[in-house]
Amino acid sequence: MTGKFISFEGPDGAGKTSVLAAIVERLSSYYGDDLLLTREPGGRDNVVAEAIRDLVLSPDYPEMDPRTEALLYAASRREHIQKTIKPALVAGKLVISDRYVDSSIAYQGAGREIGFEAVLQVNQFAIEDFWPDKTIYLDIRPEVGLARINQYRTDEINRLDMDPLSFHQRVSAGYHRLAKMAPDRIVVIDAEQPLEQVIEDVWQVLSQELKVED
Fold this sequence. Notes:
Layout lengths: L3 E6 L6 H16 L3 E5 L7 H11 L8 H25 L3 E5 L2 H11 L4 H12 L6 E6 L2 H11 L12 H17 L4 E5 L4 H16 L4
Parallel strand pairs: 1-3, 1-4, 2-3, 4-5
Helix pairs in contact: 1-8, 2-3, 3-4, 3-5, 4-5, 4-7
Catalytic activity: dTMP + ATP = dTDP + ADP
Keywords: ATP-binding, Kinase, Nucleotide biosynthesis, Nucleotide-binding, Transferase
GO molecular function: ATP binding; dTMP kinase activity
């Protein structure tokens, strides 16, 4: 595979959508049609993975068993890798994914308290040790992120947004643990800065990784 795989991570309210929109716009001038933006759970034009997304994020199932949730995410991820990410990389494209396996480890492993190792083991079966070249983690305190959601998000409130602050605090701690475990892959960006500065910090990391310049 000759392409590059970059993932974006962050707690709810970290501003991934806004940052990704700005970064993708800048990268489009370099990559054109060789740039693929996708997401998890699901995957653009990935029928099976998107169907699982609809199920796992639906607010209609607030009592879903945590291990069922973890397995559904892993299943969706497997489809995403096989049908979306790997074919694009084989074609030499830059793939940027809004979330990847770190989300499952942080949200289900830490947030749902299933355990890091248990969720990692399930996902290793799904990903077969297939990791991004670089992961951008947008770091924000849980209470700040949730306040942003309540103030600004009007399009989609999912099951995870309905969880208590303590859940999101565990998720944040899980992400911090992951960043310490994989410092060469995961780059931590302060997402509590003004949006323009967050975008610039992310761009500096990616421009070095991808060897592009303004």
